[in-house]
Amino acid sequence: MNLFDLTGRTAIITGGNGGLGLAMARGLAKAGANVAIWARNPDKNAAARSELQTLGAGEIIALACDVSEEDEIASAMASTLAEFGRVDACFANAGVSGAGTAIADITADGWDHTMAINTRGAALVYKHVSRHMIERAKAGEAGGKLIATSSDQSIMGVNRSSDYAASKAALNGLTRAAAFELARHQITANALLFGYYETDITAKADPRFGEWIARRIPLRRPGDHAGLEGLAVFLASSHSDYITGQCLPVDGGLSIS
């Protein structure tokens, strides 16, 4: 018996055409889920779709979507429902690294851009996904999974990262509020506080940051993307039904070091 078979279930992953999002999408596809990638880059979307189609029996679609634009979220949701008829799990993963400015150099535009994608984008995605999940609950089919990509920086201090840290701390608050509010519909909400993973975003960081982080991680290594596959499947499956409102560090012990 396969404890983690997701055949017939549909998962959305925003920003799922690369990095952590694509790693989680691989696990979902291998478990048989239908997967909808919502992301901005058409070429990366096409490449991700081609890869995921080879991994499992579920269907894969990739839709152009900028989560800072609500009309694009609404369109992607409509297209996903037209294709699959349902959404069982939503991974609010799309994000940016932030402006990288010192507090004394914060600009309103830089701050607002980070918040628009990392926090407001996730909230608006949850708005449209939860409406669908609530409608299903009222029709007698309760349940749904909301999983946010947060960061250790939401609970730790890092130089030149105030906008990013604040955006992810707000995402943690959104997670707890959503968990409490939506529990009556058996919809769970959790956040994953990722530590140091090698991605396109971290590749743009000062190399000294990676060296500093490596010394602080108790397990003495970056996170492995393959390990995220099973984590995503668990959170999308019925085996996580009693876990909600949690902000779980996934960081090799970084947050306790």
Question: Which features would summarize this protein structure in a list?
Answer:
single chain, 257 residues, alpha/beta, seven-stranded parallel sheet, 8 helices
List the topology elements.
Elements (H helix, E strand, L loop, with lengths): L9 E5 L4 H12 L3 E6 L2 H12 L6 E5 L5 H15 L4 E4 L15 H31 L5 E8 L10 H21 L4 E8 L5 H4 L3 H10 L10 H10 L10 E4 L7
Parallel strand pairs: 1-2, 1-4, 2-3, 4-5, 5-6, 6-7
Helix pairs in contact: 1-8, 3-4, 4-5
Task: Write a structural description.
This protein is of the alpha/beta class and 257 residues long. The protein has a single domain, classed as Rossmann fold. Helix content is 45%, strand content 16%. It has a seven-stranded parallel beta sheet, with helices on both faces. α5 links the parallel β5 and β6. α4 packs parallel to α5. It is globular and about 50 Å long. The termini are far apart.
Short description:
Helices cover 45% and strands 16% of the residues. The protein has one domain (10-241): 3-Layer(aba) Sandwich (Rossmann fold), CATH 3.40.50.
Sequence of strands across the biggest β-sheet:
3-2-1-4-5-6-7
Q: Which fold name fills CATH's third level, the topology?
A: Rossmann fold
Order of helices and strands: EHEHEHEHEHEHHHE
Helix content: 40-55%
- Overall structural class, as computed from helix and strand content, comes to alpha/beta
CATH superfamily: NAD(P)-binding Rossmann-like Domain
Write down how many β-strands occur, each being a DSSP E stretch of 2 or more residues: 7
**Rg (CA only):** 17 Å
Please give the alpha-carbon distance between the first and last residues. 39 Å
Low-confidence stretches: none
CATH class: Alpha Beta
What is the 3D form?
globular
The number of distinct structural domains comes to 1
How many alpha or pi helices? 8
Biggest sheet features:
7 strands, parallel
**From the coordinates shown, what is the CATH architecture?**
3-Layer(aba) Sandwich
Mean pLDDT: 95
Percentage of residues in DSSP E strands: 15-25%
